[in-house]
Amino acid sequence: MAGNISSAGPRSVSLAKLQSLNGLFAVYKKQGPTSADVLNNLKEALLKEAGVKNPNPRKRKKQDVKMGHGGTLDSAASGVLVVGVGTGTKMLSTMLTGSKKYIAVGELGKATDTLDATGSVVLEKDFEHITRVDFEEKLKTFTGDIMQVPPLYSALKKDGQRLSVLLKKGHKVEAKPARAVTVYNLILQDFKPPLFTLDIECGGGFYVRSLVDDLGKALSSCAHVKELSRTKQGQFTLEDHALREDHWTLEHILRSLQPCSGSEQHAEDGPNPPEADGISTHSPKAPK
């Protein structure tokens, strides 16, 4: 067990309820922690509530509760993180391929090595020539089924190691080949150069950082992601479903839990997806 369980009583009843949970629910991931950190903090809070003393949520074997997340968000991003509990972990693969929505704030005129604000500026270019009309015209070319090259700093792997980890170790890493992704909707919400705000709906395997970088180049400038929030993942929305940290309790999860359906392949302790929707799992620096 991950810790010592108290004697029979209300707490042992809570533990039994926790262990009987099966399904999906969503939590709010704030800017700062990784998706794995959020999952471990959630597990720890629930195990403590259930009466487990000194719980170790990172211990993978003989867990008191099986839990995983579907669709990694980088430490610098916030928003909806879908969690599977019990046999609900079998359903998480659908979260990786389903529709997602993001709100992204980009900055024109500066490119970074990570394509977001956590990286170092590697290029600066003029952006004064770009108008709102220009921007909206370019967005049309990035809507529908498009080809996209994943960022170098990403959770994609080479020889079993994440590209972001290899780069931090000083290894030379080649870009992955372009792959097909789908953009269902792409709207320019706000345009106040150098800043702009995009409302994005996309399919699985899509990187918002690559989109913003490609947009900057297409506009004869450069750009990077300044802020990113996932507002929808599958059926779960930020506004209606994502539990804030003060609601990470058995009572609130029971209220919001979506029961299991289907029979997808089980992933031990939930999938730790090889690629991120939006941005990479790890950044080379802590978020600013």
Shape: elongated
Question: What's the number of helices?
Answer: 7
Output the helix-strand order.
Answer: EHEHEEEHEEEHEEEHEEHEEEHE
Sheet having the most strands: 11 strands, mixed
What is the beta-strand fraction?
A: 25-35%
Instruction: Assign a percent range to the helix content.
Output: 10-25%
Tally of extended strands? 17
Radius of gyration: 20 Å
- Sheet/helix structural class: alpha+beta
Weakly predicted, low-confidence segments: 1-9, 262-288
Average of per-residue pLDDT values: 82
Q: How far is it from the N-terminal to the C-terminal residue, by CA?
A: 37 Å
Notes on the structure:
The chain has 288 residues and is of the alpha+beta class. The protein is built from 7 helices and 17 strands. The chain has helices at residues 10-19, 35-49, 93-97, 132-140, 163-168, 208-218, 250-256; strands at 4-5, 23-29, 52-53, 67-69, 78-85, 100-108, 110-112, 121-124, 144-148, 157-158, 161-162, 179-192, 195-202, 223-233, 236-237, 242-243, 258-259. The strands form 4 sheets. Strands 2, 4, 5, 6, 9, 12, 13, 14, 15, 16 and 17 form an 11-stranded mixed beta sheet that branches. A two-stranded antiparallel ribbon has the order 1-3. The longest helix is centred in the N-terminal third of the chain and has 15 residues, at 35-49. The chain is elongated. The chain starts with a strand and ends in a 29-residue tail after the last strand. The relative contact order is 0.25. Residues 1-9 and 262-288 have low confidence and may be disordered.
